């Protein structure tokens, strides 16, 4: 008799399916249209509260960053107020599918497994996923990760990429959010972290000239997310993103928060539809 031993790949697939299930169960009950949002007078935006420059809370308690700018511009487009709901990485999709928020502007990298659970818009931001460690830590290949303790935000793209690329047996510690992951490296709890394009900048702000990118795993694009099957709000989001790309508002927000030029965005991402079929 054969005994099935789950691999990292099978666990990732199982996780994607489990994410998709609540969407199927709840989308009929929480189908929110732009007209319903307008009648309510506010759009409820799920966002990260600890991941600058995408989304973060400033010292006055105000939500800021590129995703906050996107939420504010979308609310302006609808003619309503915006209400931000800060979410941990692992809670973003559950908050959307459960109807707690209308839309996610929450550093949602476009991934085929996530597209089974949520509906993406066209992309509005770019990112890349790396391994970051101290300059003194020698990492030249994926195999070198096996000798390190690596931190990642739980259920993030970093988590997926480190799990996929690190050798079997690598110690991976999962934290609730980006801030906790960064602190784990700064405090010596881990020797490296799965990172986005801004981790080095944030880490070196605490310990100057100490950290660097070691390996690059994936180039990504971020989109807004709504529930599966919600055609009207998906179409409205896509029209809104086209509009702010054309009129310069997205480039202005990018210059303010990302400090880099607006990238070229792909017309399609394999396995991730931008339009409700």
UniProtKB/TrEMBL annotation:
Signal peptide extent = 1-31
Q: Which SUPFAM superfamilies match?
A: Periplasmic binding protein-like II
UniProt keyword list: Signal
> Which positions are tagged coiled coil?
none
Lineage of the native species?
A: Bacteria, Pseudomonadati, Pseudomonadota, Alphaproteobacteria, Hyphomicrobiales
Q: Does the keyword Protease apply?
A: no
Q: Which organism is it from?
A: Bosea lupini
The name this protein carries in UniProt is Amino acid ABC transporter substrate-binding protein, PAAT family
Annotated Solute-binding protein family 3/N-terminal domain residues: 42-261
Q: Which domain of life is it from?
A: Bacteria
Q: Which Pfam family, an example, fits this chain?
A: SBP_bac_3
What the entry lists under PROSITE patterns is as follows: TAT (PS51318)
